[in-house]
Amino acid sequence: MDTLTIRRATRDDVAAIVAMLADDPLGARRESPGDPAYERAFTLIDADPHQYLAVAEVGGEVVGTLQLTFVPGLSRRGATRALIEAVRVRADHRGSGLGRRLAEWAIEESRARGAALVQLTTDASRVDAHRFYERLGFVASHVGMKLAL
Predict the structure, then answer these.
(1) Does residue 1 register a pLDDT over 70?
(2) Average of pLDDT values for 70-96?
(3) Could you give the C-alpha distances from 61 to 21, 24, 33, 55, 92, in angstroms and in order?
(4) Which one-letter DSSP state was computed for residue 33?
(5) Is 97 left (phi over 0), alpha (psi -120 to 50) or beta?
(6) 3-class DSSP state for residue 86?
(7) pTM of this prediction exceeds 0.85
(8) Are 82 and 69 in contact (CB under 8 A)?
């Protein structure tokens, strides 16, 4: 593998990120590449200091992404939580170890920013993802719930 660089996403990366979000059975049903909503969302994410939209780049190409959100709270004695969301690796790089490196980067970045814990959700149907996160030390300790609005 060429040198991996993990960096903050720029507006120029949005199309590549959306393409990865759409490139799986769940994403294919809910994403719409080319929709201007993604540009608006990027503007909000980029302006928020509690957000870090990351891309993994190999050979000058965006091949992975995740969003890291820092949530300050009162529980756990005022602890900040880091939330990992929207983890994707481009299809031609899956199985290369890039996902592990991206997740490890997110954990270290969370630690460096003073987070007390890192949490994430993964769709109940993504059994392989569950095993992947368990190998990284994550524990399925809670039940996640959503309400579509």
Answers:
(1) no
(2) 95
(3) 16, 19, 18, 10, 12
(4) T
(5) left
(6) strand
(7) yes
(8) yes
- Identify whether the C-beta of residue 109 lies closer than 8 Å to the C-beta of residue 12: no
Q: pLDDT tens for residues 59-82?
A: 999 999 999 999 999 999 999 999
Q: What is the 3-state secondary structure (H, E, C) of the chain?
A: CCCEEEEECCHHHHHHHHHHHHCCHHHHHHCCCCCCHHHHHHHHHHHCCCEEEEEEEECCEEEEEEEEEEEECCHHHHCEEEEEEEEEECHHHCCCCHHHHHHHHHHHHHHHCCCCEEEECCCCCCHHHHHHHHHCCCCCCCCCCCCCC
CATH number for 4-135 (one of 1.10.3720.10, 3.40.630.30, 3.40.50.300, 3.30.70.260): it is 3.40.630.30
Residues in the chain: 149
